[in-house]
Amino acid sequence: MREWTSWRYVETWGAPGAYHMALDEAMARLVGEGKLPPTLRLYTWQPSTLSLGMHQKLSRSIDAEVARLLGIGIVRRPSGGRTVFHDMEITYSIILPESMPGIPRSIREAFRLLTQGLVQAYHLLGITQARLHESLQTDEKRVKHDSPVCFEEPGESELVIDGKKAAGSAQARLYGALLQHGSVPLRYDEEKMFRLFYFPDDATREKALRRFQKTATSIEAALGKTVAPETLQQALREGFARALDIEFIEGNLTDEENRLTEKLIAEKYGTDAWTNR
Questions:
Q1: Cα 19 to Cα 41, 142, 184, distances in angstroms
Q2: How many CB atoms lie within 10 A of CB 206?
Q3: Is the dihedral of CA 273, 274, 276, 277 positive or negative?
Q4: Keywords on this record (predicted)?
Q5: Alpha carbon distance 263, 259 (integer Å)
């Protein structure tokens, strides 16, 4: 990984879901083409947004009518996984060349390496029990509940605190680049969140909520106090720098990134055809 000892660092606060997913793809394309250096981006969502995994069926994952009534956005990610409610959190995305020295070709091993940045960030916040989850379950057992909720149980190498899932990440390979992005929640509004997810009946919804309360946690729940977003932002930046042995240089979006992002919003992420696919 020493080929790139300095990465670009970008912040984009308070933007809609279509913008964020389009920008992640635009960055992946330009990094893959060698036009941009490896990049860490931190961002927040405005309005709060539900993001669907690439292959999820919308009607079986979220209640679109409740989302509309509550003013919640809906977007589909270029990565897999289950639905995430982006609300009281910071989201990160890492984009780097897929062939970069020091980055494993295996998706599983690359995921494990990059997620060490989250472990370091949580340790900096004082959550020393944060670690990567060592899954003993098969994929078949993990999807047995048929729940749309990403945070209901941890997958292999995801970040956990005392066994409870504390951050959700997904990875995609696009245009010769590796994109990993993930949700880092400060806290949850469980009542609102479970109104937004699709369940066939109230009993199933209540059962899923009880399961979530046993298997998921947040930064503030772990620390027992309020944490400012600025504190989390600083910890994430420093955590990834430590884990990957790099330094970050403040950067701005390029004109080409902005143009490609707007094109992807208009043609893909901002369209019903993509969201409802």
A1: 13, 31, 19
A2: 12
A3: positive
A4: Ligase
A5: 6
- CA separation for the pair 76, 276 (Å, rounded): 8
Whole-number Å distance between alpha carbons of 29 and 51: 21
Annotated active-site residue in 125, 130, 150, 264: 150
User: What's the rounded Cα separation, in Å, for the pair 22 and 181?
Assistant: 13
Torsion of CA 143, 148, 153, 155, to 10 degrees: 60
Annotated active-site residue 150? The verdict is yes
Give the helix ranges, DSSP H, for the chain. Answer: 17-32, 64-70, 107-124, 139-142, 190-196, 202-215, 219-223, 229-244, 255-264, 272-275
**Helices (H), strands (E): how many in the chain?**
10, 12
CATH number at residue 72: 3.30.930.10
Residue range(s) defining the domain that contains residue 42: 6-260
Domain count, the chain: 1
What helix, strand, coil percent values describe the chain, rounded to 5?
A: 40, 25, 35
Q: Peptide bond before 47: cis, by omega within 30 degrees of 0?
A: yes
166 within a domain of the structure (yes/no): yes
pLDDT average per 10 residues of sequence, the chain (277 residues): 78 98 98 97 98 95 97 97 96 96 90 96 98 67 55 74 94 96 97 95 94 95 98 98 96 98 98 96
Contact 206, 125 (CB under 8 A): no
Question: What pLDDT sits at residue 140?
Answer: 42
183 assigned to some structural domain: yes
* Residue in the structure block whose two tokens are 């994929």: 139
- Residue 196 amino acid letter: L
Residue 271 lies in a domain: no
The 10 Å Cβ neighbour count of residue 46 is: 14
Q: Is 55 inside a domain boundary?
A: yes
